[in-house]
């Protein structure tokens, strides 16, 4: 007897089998997928738009045929004729299941809209952008000294502003003469001042004096989210910040899944290139709308990203990054035209990509190095950019080393049973009373703890919908401090822990964090959740420890947590889990979105581009995949905080009970010590 077709939803990862003919919206509702609908499935509101993906998905174990959904119908055609559906989209209420299918729910179709927590950090930057405005008076044409209008404009720029050898694109020539005459031979010229590869170039002309602004965008192109900061190039002010989910996520949540997709599908790399460029263009439209400007005024773009995203943005198949020796097509900084990447900003706009450091240490790590400047530090600093792929820098004035570590998406709520991305209603802070084992928590969108009066009213519109990355870090660390989970990651039974919040869940136990309400069921932390976090944090710590080995040290002076997620991590909870090395808590700081800050520095200061290119050449690259001790550190770091490293500073601040639930009983103090000796 054949099985019903399998429907897999991304980015949630929820899946189930449904009979042929089941509407996608119905399947989503039955699985609890966050898919919006206001019109009750009549094809009017269009809020249930979804994007089906076709081809082979090894991660999900399915191959999606072209006829996996029902054919485009009259309702969809009518809506498309009147309002327009983006290419590749279907209405979830109209498209029905015909075969195994992977369905992406775009951010705008989700009820709980994504909060992209990447913001522009306040930073002193010496303002010296590459695009500047120059007001000039141009000599009128003369019968006795014939020369072209462009030549006289270039001469005016040289004589009045000392700009040498200025060039112009064809579109400037096409509109030059009417602009000069309308301005009565006085014009404002936007000039890209040039760089190591390009001479100065006229980008735009306005008749007379233009007193408006021109803009640049600094983009942090992450595996999961894309963040952009729109800057006034004359003042350096961040006039708008915006972000969206990386549309490539439907091809795989982690980088290696995307590399695999490109390997398994002949057109896979091009599909992902098209997706990320469309996402960037949507972001340009969004941020220009937020700032109420014409996106044609965006004349300079700086992009930082990891190597896989770097290659896919450029239209380069990332195949070689999927296997040793992880060769980049190029690691140098790139200076391109926006037209080269089909980006919908000013047609003469330039795009600068910071250099990559090594095979899996990208331009985002270079941007972190530019922002945090470990090469200028007197003390030994460990900089950790926490994300789906963590970039780690260790160094001081005497030298800097870098590596990457594949932490995966667990820190961002993926692979967690009740996990979700940071959105209103997500649990983000947790405390557990070590005596009563009772929890309290905060959710995004409310400042009240769950035990405080008014909490239910404060969350009435959002509810409690799941646990985001910072929440899962805190709850597991709190469980460890309350004696609910042992160092090896096992949750105890009700008898062992003294609370019925721990309940049997298959062959292991889970901890009930929230009892649920009429709208949402209970939220629990499972042993599988803890295992996912253990694997992620072990990868993170092992990368840091490997750099410390190479440096010949057992401790660092300070730790900087960078990245959108890193900005929300509690240093104490991170250390309880063993995510970062033992260190005084006051020496653990957050740099916020340091990669985005580095991109903004490179956007607003042209000398910074040469600086980071020189810095990157001096950074020593360590490839974790070929280092024998990485696996040893990984095994030790799977324990919380660590199987062999004592963490004396942490233990002077925090009491860590030492039960051993694996042996099945008691306080397990001896068993905990025996297990540490065996691993050591």
UniProtKB/TrEMBL annotation:
One of its GO terms (molecular function) is iron-sulfur cluster binding. It holds the Pfam family RACo_C_ter. SUPFAM superfamilies: 2Fe-2S ferredoxin-like (SSF54292). PROSITE patterns: 2FE2S_FER_2. Residues 658-680 are annotated as: Disordered. Residues 5-109 form the 2Fe-2S ferredoxin-type domain. InterPro entries: 2Fe-2S_ferredoxin-like_sf, 2Fe-2S_ferredoxin-type, Beta-grasp_dom_sf, Corrinoid_activation_enz, Raco-like_middle, Raco-like_middle_sf, RACo_C, RACo_linker. PANTHER family: IRON-SULFUR CLUSTER PROTEIN, IRON-SULFUR CLUSTER-BINDING PROTEIN-RELATED. This is Uncharacterized 2Fe-2 and 4Fe-4S clusters-containing protein, contains DUF4445 domain. It comes from Aliiroseovarius sediminilitoris.
């Amino acid at each position: 007897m054949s099985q019903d077709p399998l429907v897999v939803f991304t980015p949630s990862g929820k899946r189930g089998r449904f009979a042929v003919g089941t509407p996608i919206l119905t399947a989503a509702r039955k699985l609890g997928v966050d898919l919006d609908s206001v019109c009750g499935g009549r094809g009017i509101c269009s809020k249930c738009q979804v994007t089906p993906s076709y081809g082979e998905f090894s991660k999900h174990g399915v191959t999606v045929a072209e006829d996996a959904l029902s054919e485009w119908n009259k309702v969809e055609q009518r809506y498309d004729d009147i309002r327009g559906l983006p290419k590749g989209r279907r209405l979830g209420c109209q498209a029905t299941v015909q075969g195994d299918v992977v369905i992406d729910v775009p951010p705008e179709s989700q009820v709980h809209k994504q909060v992209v927590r990447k913001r522009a950090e306040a930073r002193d930057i010496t303002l010296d952008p590459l695009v500047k405005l120059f007001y000039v008076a141009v000599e009128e044409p003369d019968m006795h000294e014939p020369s072209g209008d462009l030549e006289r404009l270039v001469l005016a720029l040289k004589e009045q502003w000392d700009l040498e050898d200025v060039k112009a694109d064809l579109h400037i020539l096409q509109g030059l003469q009417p602009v000069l005459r309308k301005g009565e031979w006085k014009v404002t010229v936007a000039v890209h001042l040039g760089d190591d590869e390009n001479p100065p170039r006229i980008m735009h002309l306005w008749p007379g004096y233009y007193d408006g602004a021109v803009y640049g965008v600094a983009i942090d192109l992450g595996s999961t989210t894309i963040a952009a900061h729109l800057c006034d190039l004359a003042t350096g002010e961040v006039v708008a910040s915006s972000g969206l989910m990386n549309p490539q996520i439907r091809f795989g949540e982690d980088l290696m899944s995307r590399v695999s997709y490109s390997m398994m599908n002949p057109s896979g790399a091009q599909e992902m290139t098209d997706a990320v460029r469309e996402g960037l263009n949507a972001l340009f439209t969004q941020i220009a709308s937020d700032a109420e400007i014409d996106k044609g005024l965006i004349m300079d773009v700086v992009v930082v990203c990891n190597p896989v995203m770097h290659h896919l943005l450029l239209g380069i198949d990332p195949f070689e990054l999927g296997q040793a020796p992880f060769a980049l097509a190029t690691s140098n900084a790139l200076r391109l035209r926006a037209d080269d990447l089909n980006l919908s900003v000013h047609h003469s706009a330039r795009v600068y990509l910071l250099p990559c450091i090594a095979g899996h240490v990208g331009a985002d790590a270079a941007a972190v190095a530019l922002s945090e400047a470990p090469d200028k530090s007197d003390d030994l600093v460990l900089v950790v950019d926490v994300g789906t792929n963590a970039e780690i820098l260790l160094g001081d004035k005497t030298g800097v080393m870098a590596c990457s570590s594949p932490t995966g998406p667990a820190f961002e709520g993926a692979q967690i049973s009740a996990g979700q991305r940071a959105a209103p209603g997500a649990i983000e802070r947790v405390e557990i009373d070590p005596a009563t084992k009772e929890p309290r928590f905060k959710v995004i969108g409310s400042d009240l703890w769950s035990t405080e009066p008014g909490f239910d009213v404060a969350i009435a519109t959002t509810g409690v919908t799941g646990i985001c990355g910072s929440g899962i870090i805190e709850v597991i660390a709190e469980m460890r401090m309350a004696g609910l989970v042992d160092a090896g990651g096992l949750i105890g039974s009700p008898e062992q822990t003294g609370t019925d919040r721990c309940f049997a869940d298959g062959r292991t136990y889970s901890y009930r964090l929230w009892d649920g309400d009429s709208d949402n069921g209970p939220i629990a932390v499972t042993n599988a959740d803890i295992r996912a976090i253990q694997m992620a944090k072990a990868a993170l710590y092992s990368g840091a420890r490997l750099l410390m080995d190479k440096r010949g040290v057992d401790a660092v002076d300070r730790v900087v947590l960078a990245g959108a997620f890193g900005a929300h991590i509690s240093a104490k909870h991170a250390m309880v889990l063993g995510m970062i090395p033992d260190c005084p808590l006051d020496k653990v700081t957050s740099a916020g979105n340091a990669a985005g800050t580095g991109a903004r520095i490179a956007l607003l200061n042209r000398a910074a581009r040469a600086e980071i290119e020189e810095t990157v050449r001096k950074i020593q690259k360590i490839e974790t995949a070929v280092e024998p001790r990485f696996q040893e550190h990984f095994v030790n770091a799977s324990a919380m905080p660590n199987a062999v490293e004592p963490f004396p500073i942490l233990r002077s601040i925090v009491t860590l009970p030492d039960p051993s639930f694996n042996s099945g009983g008691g306080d397990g103090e001896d068993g905990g010590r025996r297990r540490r000796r065996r691993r050591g």
